[in-house]
Amino acid sequence: MKILLISPYSDISTLGLRIISAYLKRAGHSTRMIFLPYLYPEIESMVDFQHRYTPEILNSVSELAQDVQLIGITVMTNYFTMVEDLTHHLKRTTGVPVIWGGVHPSIRPEECLHIADFVCVSEGEATIVELADRLAADEAIDDIPNLWLKRNGELIRNPARSVIEDLDSLPYPDYDFNDQFVLDWQTEELKKLDKELLHQFLTRERPTKARAALFYQTIASRGCPYGCTFCCWNVLRRKHKLPRTIRRRSNQHLIGELKWVRQELPYIREITFSDDSFFAATLDEARQFRDLYKAEINLPFQCLAEPRTITREKMEIFVDAGMANIQIGIQTGSPSVKKMYGRPQKNKEIIAMGELLHEFLPRIRPPIYDFILDNPWETVDDKIETLSLLTRLPRPYFLQLFSLVFYPGTALYDRAMKEGLIINEREEIYNQQYNTRKINYVNLLFSLFSRNVPTSLLRYLSKSDVVKTLNKPSINALLRVLYKIFSRLRVIPLLVRRALKQQKLEKLRN
């Protein structure tokens, strides 16, 4: 059976979908993959996060779906509208059944079944293989675990499937390029993906504090042991009885994947581990990883971590292994907001962690700290406490700032709905991007901490009386006007290039 797998995400690594493709191939099926990354987020964010696929793009995808028997699409909440349009077009032009999987369908399967024919909740590898097997054999599909569907208007909610405990049983992500295509927004063409084109797409984004080199993305584990009230992991755990424990791949299995990367993608200069908490490994696991990684891979790597897992001993091990950068979720410095988020670490512990990381400079790059802004329950005093924490963390460091989005099913979503803070879900949640922050004095001040601004000046600007004086509606309104002007000036060159390329494309078509 031939299955078309589609990713709408800007990152064409799309690890989960590539593993599903490899899993299907191992079971005897064939796959085609289409990646539809957006190219101009700077322009689109001037309006909102969403954009619409042109008729030409939709038709190109439809042409590649004519010879398949099943279409699978991965969906996150803020891609819902784009995937909705795409699914309606594919069902209208091909008649091929469509299955949705990913975070949003796992949390809101009933909503998704108004659009898709099937929904896979929770992990999808075994479910989609069983679905493909039964469709190929023309057998009943109504009782497949993790699969939801409608039959004669009745919603069928099949029971949960046990999660995959042995992650070494999973194949490596599918990068064989035999039948993979990627959208080039400059020409609105679907191009056949190969190693060189992958290289071009991976290098289109300028190096930043988080992307200092061309990198390959993977994970060493699945799961997260924490219960943050803003996070979808907590919802998935409650809704589908997922374990709180972290499931880890063996170091041998992980290194095997990375050896393939070194051999087949020699332009890769760094590895990114996207585990929710890479540092949750035991000391024995960390030491074994170090020994194998240094011997077989020996590339710089970056990872994510949670403050409570960072110790001097683990830092020594991972830095010796090649860790070049670390990204840590702090989110807030306010005790009351920490309680709201389910983030119990104390500021003195965070500062001690920052001092520990500072000792490893310049062996590692300055750390990246994540913080959440735009919380409607956060008071000015709460924000000042977070700013105070930042002035006490050793510099240099970079901040990755997020705007709080009430994703469906989370505890904060439930509270916001109860208090009437959500008026239009589509506009306020589905069509929002979590790194598009509000323009005001406090948020501007947060962004200065990643700049080369003297700490003494930041301390002054973060003082309670200064913040309360400058964070007023009239001043924030002026800042929004100035930012709008700056943004439009900044994207003029991009708009001009887009217009010129569109003219060139039209000439070629004529």
Automatic annotation (TrEMBL):
A Pfam family reported for this protein in Swiss-Prot or TrEMBL: Radical_SAM
CDD domains referenced in this protein's UniProt entry, alphabetically: Radical_SAM (cd01335)
Superkingdom: Bacteria
UniProt cross-references to InterPro entries, sorted A to Z: BchE-like, Cobalamin-bd, Cobalamin-bd_sf, Elp3/MiaA/NifB-like_rSAM, Methyltransferase_Class_B, rSAM, rSAM_horseshoe, rSAM_sf
Keyword Protein biosynthesis: no
Stretches assigned to the Radical SAM core domain: 208-451
Residue span(s) of domain B12-binding: 1-142
Key words of the record: Iron, Iron-sulfur, Metal-binding, S-adenosyl-L-methionine
Cofactors demanded by this protein: [4Fe-4S] cluster
Cited PROSITE patterns: B12_BINDING (PS51332), RADICAL_SAM (PS51918)
Protein name (database record): B12-binding domain-containing radical SAM protein
